[in-house]
Specification:
By secondary structure, this protein is an alpha+beta fold. It folds into 2 domains: 121 residues, no CATH class; 38 residues, no CATH class. It contains 4 helices and 8 strands; from the N terminus they run βαβαββββββαα. The mean pLDDT is 86. This is DUF177 domain-containing protein. Pfam families: YceD (PF02620).
Length: 171
């Protein structure tokens, strides 16, 4: 879906509402942590205020992940807000390259790639089933969320191992 700049110019600041559904297969192929995805429903509005064009709204979908710590599959509902600002390319100064304002390259704003990028950037690189997930024991492999583990997983830096003997004699 594209939004024509001329349509926004004629509306004189009145927002133009839009709805868009992003293809889940394309998004899933572009992010390795997504195991399953419902169609991404997008609602938003576009408006022109002064010389700037604003697009904002939110995206919602159900995403299936595998926990990065305990390897348990889980599903999470994500609601991702988005907001972008555009200006004609000729009105942007050369020193504003790092600006949050995106240049308008044509007479339309192409929404799909813009929204796909916003969605993918908001998906976690290391999804966790719970914020306090304890993960798997590196020694025996038990899921420490489900049962305790009696393994001793203490790592001692070999350069400091000699100090452990130092305190044994003082007792």
């Amino acid at each position: 879906m594209n939004i024509k700049i001329a349509d926004l110019d004629r509306r004189e600041g009145e927002p133009l509402a839009f709805r868009l559904t992003l293809d889940p297969d394309e998004l899933k192929a572009r992010h390795q942590e997504i195991r399953g995805l419902t169609p991404v429903e997008t609602k938003g509005e576009a408006a022109k205020l002064g010389d700037l064009y604003y697009i904002n709204g939110d995206m919602q979908a159900d995403v299936k992940f595998v926990c990065a710590r305990c390897l348990r599959p889980f599903e999470q509902h994500v609601a991702i807000p988005f907001s972008e600002t555009f200006a004609p390319a000729e009105s942007l100064l050369a020193d504003e390259e790092d600006s949050e304002i995106l240049p308008l390259e044509s007479d339309e704003i192409e929404l799909a790639p813009l929204l796909q990028e916003n969605f993918l950037l908001d998906i976690p690189a290391f999804p966790l089933c719970e914020d306090d997930c304890k993960g798997l024991c590196p020694t025996c492999g038990v899921n420490r969320n489900e049962q305790p583990c009696s393994c001793k997983n203490e790592r001692i830096d070999p350069r400091l191992a000699g100090l452990a003997d130092f305190f044994k004699d003082s007792k």
